[in-house]
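Entry: Purine catabolism protein PucG
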Amino acid sequence: MEQLPAPLRAHARTLLGPGPSDVDPSVLRAISLPTVGHLDPAFLQTMDEIRSMLECLLGARGGRTTALSATGSAGMEACVVNLVERGDRVLIGQSGVFGGRMAEVARRAGAEVTLVEAEWGRPLELEALRRAAAGRQFRFIGLVHGETSTGVLQPLAGLRELADECGALLLVDAVTSLAGHPLDVHASGIDALYSGTQKCLSCPPGLSPVHFSDRAIARIGSRASAVQSWYLDINLIEAYWGGPRAYHHTAPINMLFGLHEALRLVLSEGLEPRFARHELNAHALWSGLEALGLELRVAEEHRLNPLTTVSIPDGIDDAAVRGRLLSEFGIEIGGGLGPMKGNTWRIGLMGSGSSRRNVHLVLSALATVLADMGHRAPENPIAAAASVYDA
């Protein structure tokens, strides 16, 4: 069998798309540690420390916090299938691809879904959700905090109060926002949350941090039927993670070593400095993109800091630009999804990839490729970004 292609052997890629993000070398070293058994006492201690660090990152008080042995999509499914039974009513907000996926998972679990939609590139309005919920009871209200398909940050203010009005739990998708934006499950009244490791945690994909509040655990305990998924049943998973350490599945030991190191890096940097770093680099990128004469798809007050969506200028070939960025500069950015396919680029500055170096790198490369295609920048993008850093 042939070796991997040369660019992959050399790791000649800078990942500035919607995920995965670049992984810190210390995380890769942790993943390469010798494999031990999934019930080895030293590994069980590692699991306990992962839980403690996740609780700190999430602001969790009580409940159950763990890292599922699967990607963020499985975290979404785990939250849904543990909380709902066939015939339950749920209220879900959709302003992009991933709100739609949450709704589809709920339908397949047998829930009756009331869907509230917003225009792509705009957050859901609390009043629209309130109108849909008026006079009705729901098992949960579900929304995406950081919509990866559009680059929108969804405000969480008022959602706990709305959930209380209709007897609902509050479910939040934090796949792209976790460790890149402030997020406190206790202060926000979040009952169930899922994320992934490959975005702002800068760990390879393959694990899904999840949190269930005490309210959610009580709901799961009062179910009349078994959780639809045996593998994602949080009661069975908790028996392994929290005691009595009952065998449920063979955990991805080395991936959890990597997550342990990624979380250690997050907390060593400090949450506030980390959020501030993401914010500063995002603003520098936005300034540079505008200097290039590019239009950003989301109003500034609604933008995700870790992920920016950019309108592709008329006459510019989406795939050709992304292909040249990858082949000539080793830079990966993402294309659009759904109605944004072919007319939008998604540029990520996530975790260890959120740096001044990467802002300059992607702006310089984009300027070169676009100029070759006849798009002239009205201003110097590097100078525009520098003005943000120097302010």
